[in-house]
Amino acid sequence: MVGGGMAGLAAAYYLQRAAEVAGRPVQVVLFESDRRLGGKVRSVQSGPYRLEGGPDAVVRYKPWFLDLVRELGLEGEVVGTTPAKPAALIFKGGRGYPLPEGLNVVIPSRFGPLVRTPLLSPAGKLRAALDLFLPRGPEGDEPFGAFVQRRLGREVWDNLAAPLTGGIYGGDPYELSTLAAFPMLKELEAKNRSLILGSLRAMRRRQGSREGGSLFASLQGGLGRVVEAVTRAADRVDWRLGAPVERLEHHEGRWQLFGPWGTEGFDALVLAVPARVAGELLGPLDPELAAPLREIPYGDTATVTLAFDRSRFPEVVGHGVLVAAGEGTRARGFTWLSRKWTGRAPEDKLLVRAYFSGAGAGLDEKGLVDAARSDLERIVGPIPDHEAAWTYRWKAGMPQYTVGHLDRVRRIEAAPSRWPGLELIGAAYRGVGLPEVVRDGRDAAARTLEHLSREP
Asked: Which family is this sequence assigned to (predicted)?
């Protein structure tokens, strides 16, 4: 296996476990170019502060990450977000407005909050209501921004959908593939015609199903606890840190890996690396496979976490604030980390995390901190000096699911017919969230064991 992010870790863990259950001896070796495992999952304990450099939560309705948590014996550490109403604000026109209640992804599913929200003008609300009468749109893919504007209008896009999705996928949310990133919304339109009516029905079915009363979950010690637990549980895996793979060869059904550490041969290969890296490795062997891998674009992301004296910081509500389109900030939004999660900072301190993507994430560390402070002051007013700062930058760290993504993935998934025993997994293909990449690793492990079981 190549790549020690969450997808590679899950694949290694599930392959060892499945091999043990099947009674088949399998030696798993995982190569990671970095000196640490976990990829963007990076929980940090710095003095009295506990923070996340990368993702800080998973959604409960996608069960695969929490299934892994339970298998690792960490279920008792699962925590939900603190109760908050409103949960978040949208910053627009120099003010913060509560996020309307009852959103299904980004689609209003309750008429009352939609009518009352100051985020939409009277004309914007009437335009959104036209969704109730508009015919179904085309079945094919389209940019997500075009999809939302076609159904609900420009204001819903600028003031609700764009800020909500920009923080998930980074880059330009307008250009996202609707079929790849939000297939459930295309399905809502196909089945119900109206997104609002379809969302209303979906939310009614989902009522009462949220475990622990919270949509999001984390662990008391941070998501990095899963990385630690996987490496302990997968105790027969040979973890090779600081071991980049620079070249691949394939001879008589076996993969030969080359790096500054030497060369080694294997019966199966799981590439859990960014798509562009997989394309570089596989290009000399299979240009047809490398082409769609290289076509998947990536965007930069970064986070800045600042610690403040809570008594000197302006009063804030909810878990954070997202920024509407066109407001001119470099940060996509802010999370009040120590309000969102318990145990992240002393009671008299406040942890604030800023999220950057696209051009804003290209600043150096000082530039990111300065931008975070400047944007924060625009939103909450004058702020005191911060007592500590932590910055994490992910160059080309977020795959962009642009229109045509599903076709690219179909071309990539045809590879096993030409290269038995090869698996390509990770956030670039079938979902960017931690639950999806864990599922990817689990499924790849099952296919890999099946392949090895056919080997003589």
From this structure: Belongs to the protoporphyrinogen/coproporphyrinogen oxidase family. Coproporphyrinogen III oxidase subfamily.
Going from the C-alpha of 395 to that of each of 53, 246, 302, the distances in angstroms are 14, 19, 8
Range of the domain at 333: 298-399
CATH label of the domain that carries residue 326: 3.90.660.20
Peptide bond into 55 cis (omega under 30): no
A 10 A CB-CB count for 126 gives: 11
Residue 73 domain-assigned (yes or no): no
Tell me the residue ranges of DSSP E strands in 221-315.
238-241, 247-251, 254-259, 262-266, 269-271, 298-309
Task: Specify whether the CB–CB gap between 90 and 119 falls below 8 A.
Answer: yes
Residue 239 lies in a domain: yes
By the 8 A CB rule, do 231 and 239 touch? yes
The DSSP element (H or E) to which 422 belongs, if any, is strand 422-424
73-88: pLDDT as tens digits: 999 999 999 999 888 9
Last residue of a domain, one of 209, 244, 278: 209
Contacts of 137 (CB under 8 A, 6+ apart): 147, 150, 151, 189
Residue 74 DSSP label: -
For the chain, the first-to-last Cα distance in angstroms comes to 21
Domain count, the chain: 3
Report yes or no on whether pTM surpasses 0.85: yes
Residue after which a domain boundary falls, among 372, 399, 426:
399
DSSP string, 203-242: HHHHTT-SGGG-SEEEETT-THHHHHHHHHH-TTSEEEET
pLDDT tens digit sequence for 192-236:
999 999 998 877 766 544 444 578 999 999 999 999 999 999 999
Say which CATH number the domain at 233 has. 3.50.50.60
**Res 171: pLDDT:** 79
CA distance 318 to 352: 12
Q: Are residues 200 and 123 in the same domain?
A: yes
Task: Please report whether residue 178 resides in a domain.
Answer: yes
154, 242: one domain: no
